[in-house]
Amino acid sequence: MIAADLPAPGQPPWLTGHRAAGMARFAALGYPTRKMEAWRFTDLRPLTASIFPPAPADPVAVTAATLAPHRLAGPAHRVVLVNGRFAPALSDIGALPSGVWLGAATDALRTRPDMMASAFMADEAALASLNTALFADGFVLALEPGVILETPVEVIHHADMGVPAAAHLRNCLIIGAGARATVVEMSTGVGASWLNTVTAIAVAAGGALRHVQIQRDADEAIHTAVIRATVARDGRYDGFSLMAGGRLSRRDIHVTLAEAGAGVALHGAYLLRDGQEATLAPVVVHAAPGCRTDEVVKGVMRDRAHGVFLGTIQVRPGADGTDARQLNRNLLLSPTAWVDTKPELEILADDVKCSHGATVGSLDEAALFYLQARGIDPATARLMLVEAFAADVIDGAGLDGPIRDHVHGHLRAWLDGMGGEI
Amino acid sequence: MSKLLEIRDLRARIVGGRDILKGIDLDVAPGEVHAIMGPNGAGKSTLSSVLAGKPGYEVTGGSVLYQGRDLLALPADERAREGIFLAFQYPVEIPGVNNMYFLRAALNAGRRQRGAPELDASQFLKAVRDKLKLLDIGDDLLRRAVNVGFSGGEKKRNEIFQMAMLEPRLAILDETDSGLDIDALRVVSDGVNRLRDANRAIILITHYQRLLDYIVPDHVHVLSEGRIVASGDKTFATELERTGYAHLGTAA
Asked: Chain A residue closest to B163 (CA)?
């Protein structure tokens, strides 16, 4: 159930229309159900069985010390959003090179609404429509053509709502022709909450965006995210997702390789324990010739956790010279853990090189014995093998040293959270 | 000298199968090198697996004392930390686990067991360099994942390097010569010979007499149909080469 009071002040007139249309569309569509093919493996009950009114705008007592453990080592342009709203006191955007705009979506809508105009679509899915209707804030990064932003942008989302409530965020990443940036997002928090984000990404010709998203939400949290990227001629979008938190999480990543020579890499891992439920659903559309997709996703499930991988690569007619590979590998650590994996290729062009595959397995008994035969105790041996399984996808993602270390740190923290037994 | 290993009437099988070991008796003292030879199916690999504690085997009778303790009561990792080393016939590839990281974890696990301080990264690196020098092998394998993409010879060389690092009291080399060309066999044998020590015992399990030209044992035993049917000194191997196993039959 959704409260009907729409955020209004400071928004451009065109947005009012989008918001009304978004609410009408959500009212018509309702929450996704398992009768829909794209949702049939995802158990949405934790979301649909509760009421998540929009989180109040009241400031929350979050200190820099709370966020310190989540921060990137080294310099960063830091944006902090608490309960879905820009928190200036916790943020440290610092000096930006000319041609770079970075800040809150509310500021963007007030001062540079043109930047966000293309971030809305009429035919959004249900949760994105609801987001259009209700989003209170978000972050925007825009690079003018040719601008190289060397220092990474770090975005920390912190949820601490006191009572179950929802934060809807609309984010926008605009990379001009030949421009280049790295964005590292992290979500964390305490208690029950629902984070519902839509991120619109446009990479212009020859531009490149590296986008790392680390999800370490509280055990009770729900996190749904839509990432929608369009990549122009010879541009690149390199996405990495680490899903290791929250009660229910789902990431729908939709990338359109719109012009010749565009490339996308989508790497990532879901690490799930207890009764966690996570879905990673990347869809890549090859709409032009000579584009490339490189997708490797790994999953580790223990206890009663449930992972879902729904990977689709569509090669449109005329997208000759497509080079696409997609791989999903899963490790089940308990007899009650479960995964559904559905890698799909839809190829409507002739001259393509495509591969896909999925595996589901348990730890290699021969490797476990080998480690034990060298004196390593069984619990440590299991941890080593699980870490190696997941670390492989981090190392293969081409991340820069400090960011790679940061992601490894989160993997290690997740493993440490198992108390030495996995 | 007291015995390091005392095997008495050991009987064992693969879980659910028939006995493969049908009463093994063997004493090994510190400093000794024993060769256990025999045809395929005699139980050689079962013996090494049971001594190392590999899952999937069950002991149906007899006893094994190691340094006076009941070895069979210990899990595999504890046996290793107590100084038993099995050089695998088929070393296992472990993608994603760096060879050096793995070896340091193994070495420090053993040191913790003995109450010795753990080696830090630089102390460990020095130990690695010393052993590489001792064995006269390059460091090309160290940066790679454990056994991944190694040739057969590289895998065996890696086993011997691990043995040098872990400094076991009892090393069991299971068909270490299998699949090696003559150059690789020489490298591996030289390594083993350099690790011979008055405090260390070695059990060589092999199908071929060839290995014993390079590593000269103190004692040679013939294993046949789950029993040791003949034993002798190092000259016995040469005799076996001439006469074969057949005449030894299924004695006792």
From this structure: A374
List, in order, residues 6 or more apart from B205 with CB less than 8 Å away: B35, B36, B44, B45, B47, B48, B172, B173, B174, B175
Shortest Cα distance from B216 to chain A (angstroms)? Answer: 26
Contact B77 A372 (CB under 8 A): yes
Instruction: Please give the pLDDT value at position A7.
Output: 52
pLDDT score, position B1: 52
Contact between residue A205 and residue A232 where contact means Cβ atoms under 8 Å apart:
yes
Q: Which residue of A has its CA nearest to B55?
A: A369
Whether chain A has a CB inside 8 Å of the CB on B155: the answer is no
A27 in contact with chain B, both atoms CB, cutoff 8 A: no
A374·B97 Cβ contact <8 A = no
Task: Give the amino acid at B89.
Answer: Q
Q: Computed from CA positions of residues B182, B185, B191, B196, in that sequence, does the dihedral angle turn out positive or negative?
A: negative
Encoded tokens for A390: 């997941």
Domain spans, chain A: 13-259, 364-422
Terminal Cα-to-Cα distance of chain B (whole angstroms)? 29
Q: Is A29 exposed, middle or buried (0-12, 13-18, 19+ CB in 10 A)?
A: middle
Q: What's the CA gap between A50 and A405, in Å, rounded?
A: 38
Q: Are strands A263-272 and B57-66 parallel, antiparallel or unpaired?
A: unpaired
Q: Among A370, A378, A389, whose Cβ lies nearest the Cβ of B92?
A: A370
Of chain B residues 26-65, which have a CB less than 8 A from chain A?
52-55
Task: Work out the average pLDDT over B61-83.
Answer: 97
Asked whether A382 and A368 are in contact (CB, 8 A), the reply is yes
Alpha helices in chain B (DSSP H): 44-52, 76-81, 99-114, 121-135, 152-166, 182-194, 211-214, 234-243
pLDDT in tens, A154-213: 999 999 998 899 999 999 999 999 999 999 999 999 999 999 999 999 999 999 999 999
Contacts with A369 from chain B: Cβ below 8 Å? 54-55, 76, 92
What percentage of chain B exceeds 90 in pLDDT?
A: 76
Any chain B CB within 8 A of the CB of A365? yes
CB contact under 8 A, B95 and A392: yes
Span B8-19, pLDDT tens digits:
999 999 999 999
> What are A284-321's pLDDT values in tens digits?
999 999 999 999 999 999 999 999 999 999 999 999 99
> What ipTM was assigned to the predicted interfaces of this complex?
0.95
DSSP assignment string, A224-285: EEEEEEEE-TT-EEEEEEEE---SEEEEEEEEEE-STT-EEEEEEEEEE-TT-EEEEEEEEE
- Residue ranges in chain A modelled with pLDDT below 70: 1-9
A-contacting residues in B 166-185 (Cβ below 8 Å): 166
Contact B109 A384 (CB under 8 A): no
Predicted confidence band at B141 (pLDDT cuts at 50, 70, 90)? confident
Considering only CB atoms, which chain B residues are within 8 Å of A366? 92
